[in-house]
User: Which sequence fits this backbone?
């Protein structure tokens, strides 16, 4: 309470009341202030502890799948290394076109599998992100989570001689308004818990159903089930039946996420009779009008003049080749100085800048900003191989119009070029024509 | 990479077992290019194939489902005790390795493996299982 207000408090002394009346009130105020400060400190400490605990739970879940992930990556690497080594050591095989194409396809498929694993990991551990609700298709989330948790229910289970089958029964359901990463996290916790509950052999079934004004998601297993006490307490933070192997936060997080979206969760379980978690989440009233993302083909746009900066030679070569295949004129730069020199000497429609700039002490965003001052009409694409920058960040980074995650497929590169091309204003005609499109 | 026949090595009828089609495709091509006669299958199909056709050697992944590498190894050894079986794995687990070797696996390799090392191991295994033959 400010001092001036305190002074206006009625003082019992004027009316002949107890001499210490005002002093007592002042003491109360001081004491109250101290308590408020102490409570604020406690609250901040609790929030910080909560963040740490949530992160620990995430890492714990990841750790549970570690051996399975190693297995999956090694499996992806085997055809990549095997096929490429085979072709390099047997150049005469290059004459056998059909076989070479098959080997290249196996390399490509395996590389995509590895890329998907990285993308899923990246989504999962990304610490701070935009959690604002948007239209989420729970059936797609279920498919993603089944793949994401495969190291646990398939590979790791095999290593402890346990066979786990996973089955889905997915009905057509409207999208809900939620954060997709939180839905993924929630479902992942339920699936991992089911895996832990199954000994020797069992099945996990994931069902979705539409309901009046909501969707219903049901995750059930044929595992060891729960006693009544466990069922009653399982959503309590730090309550765990797994001893040192559990953080006790998994189901607490599930509960928190569901409540955040005004949903409800019920458990059916008895010892040795499996468990079923039934979750109801409301759908927005205009859910029929919520558009689902439609995958569109990305036809190439009209040729543009592209300045490409990437310190990695292989990455530079691959991107340049992709771009030239679509008829773009490409100037590559391996160093920041070279990129700035070329930007100063020529006109470009698009600049592609890798976020890593080893020479120069800055990063790709700083370089993109500098290039913007030299090429005010050009649009820029930031190439990022880390989880630090994602597609949604483009609007928040000065000088960056689109963020493209590496590794990028031909189609993803085209999508990024299409996006910036739509933003390109008509450039003034240049005095020298761009060279003819180069063949791949 | 050497072609087995040209170097006086033994050509073998080999069963490749894995549930990853890309791995089977690449290994198949490597072994065929080296001159071997190759059949491919996942765990379940491999167990059936072993009962129907004679093989000189089996290369099998460990972790498969529903029929895993240990079951393939046991089936192969039951049908033909002297058959060499090379186990391959993308994640080494000492217990599983010991189990496989105790049952009679010829060798235990980690993925991703070197193509030449695999071919050498196959050549060595065939040579030992056919003493006196070239």
Assistant:
């Amino acid at each position: 309470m400010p001092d001036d207000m305190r002074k206006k408090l009625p003082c019992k002394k004027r009316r002949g009341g107890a001499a210490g009346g005002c002093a007592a009130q002042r003491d109360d105020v001081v004491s109250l202030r101290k308590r408020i400060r102490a409570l604020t400190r406690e609250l901040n400490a609790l929030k910080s502890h909560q963040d740490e605990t949530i992160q620990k739970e995430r890492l714990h879940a990841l750790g549970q799948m570690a051996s399975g992930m190693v297995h999956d990556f090694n499996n992806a690497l085997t055809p990549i290394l095997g096929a490429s080594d085979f072709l390099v050591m047997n150049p005469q095989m290059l004459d056998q076109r059909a076989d070479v194409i098959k080997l290249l396809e196996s390399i490509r498929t395996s590389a995509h599998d590895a890329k998907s694993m990285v993308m899923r990991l990246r989504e999962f551990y990304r610490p701070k992100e935009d959690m604002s609700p948007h239209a989420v298709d729970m059936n797609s989330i279920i498919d993603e989570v089944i793949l994401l948790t495969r190291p646990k229910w398939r590979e790791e289970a095999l290593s402890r001689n346990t066979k786990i089958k996973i089955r889905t029964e997915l009905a057509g359901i409207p999208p809900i308004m939620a954060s997709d990463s939180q839905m993924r996290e929630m479902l992942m916790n339920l699936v991992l818990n089911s895996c832990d509950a199954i000994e020797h052999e069992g099945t996990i079934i994931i069902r979705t159903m539409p309901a009046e004004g909501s969707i219903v998601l049901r995750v059930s297993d044929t595992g060891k089930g729960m006693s009544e006490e466990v069922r009653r307490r399982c959503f309590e933070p730090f309550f765990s039946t797994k001893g040192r192997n559990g953080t006790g936060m998994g189901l607490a997080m599930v509960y928190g996420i569901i409540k955040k979206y005004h949903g409800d969760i019920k458990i059916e379980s008895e010892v040795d009779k499996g468990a079923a978690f039934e979750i109801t989440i409301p759908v927005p009233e205009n859910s029929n009008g919520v558009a689902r993302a439609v995958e569109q083909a990305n036809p190439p746009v009209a040729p543009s003049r592209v300045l490409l900066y990437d310190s990695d030679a292989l990455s530079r070569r691959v991107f340049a080749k992709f771009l030239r295949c679509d008829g773009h004129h490409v100037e590559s730069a391996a160093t920041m100085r070279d990129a700035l020199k070329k930007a100063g000497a020529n006109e470009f429609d698009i600049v592609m800048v890798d976020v890593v700039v080893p020479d120069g002490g800055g990063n790709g965003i700083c370089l993109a900003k500098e290039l913007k001052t030299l090429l005010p009409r050009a649009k820029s694409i930031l190439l990022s191989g880390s989880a630090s920058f994602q597609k949604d960040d483009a609007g928040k980074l000065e000088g960056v119009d689109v963020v493209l995650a590496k590794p990028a497929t031909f189609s993803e590169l085209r999508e990024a070029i299409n996006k910036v091309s739509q933003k390109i204003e008509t450039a003034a005609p240049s005095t020298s024509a761009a060279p003819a499109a180069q063949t791949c | 990479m050497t072609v087995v026949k040209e170097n006086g090595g033994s050509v073998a009828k080999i069963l490749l077992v894995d549930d990853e089609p890309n791995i089977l495709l690449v290994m198949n091509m490597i072994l065929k290019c080296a001159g071997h006669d190759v059949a491919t299958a996942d765990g379940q199909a491999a167990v059936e194939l072993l009962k129907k056709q004679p093989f000189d050697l089996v290369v099998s992944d460990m972790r498969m489902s529903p029929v895993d590498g240990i079951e393939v190894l046991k089936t192969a050894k039951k049908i033909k005790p002297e058959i060499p079986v090379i186990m391959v794995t993308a994640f080494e687990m000492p217990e599983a390795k010991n189990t496989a070797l105790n049952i009679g696996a010829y060798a235990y390799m980690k993925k991703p493996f070197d193509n030449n090392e695999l071919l050498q191991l196959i050549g060595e295994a065939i040579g030992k299982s056919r003493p006196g033959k070239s």
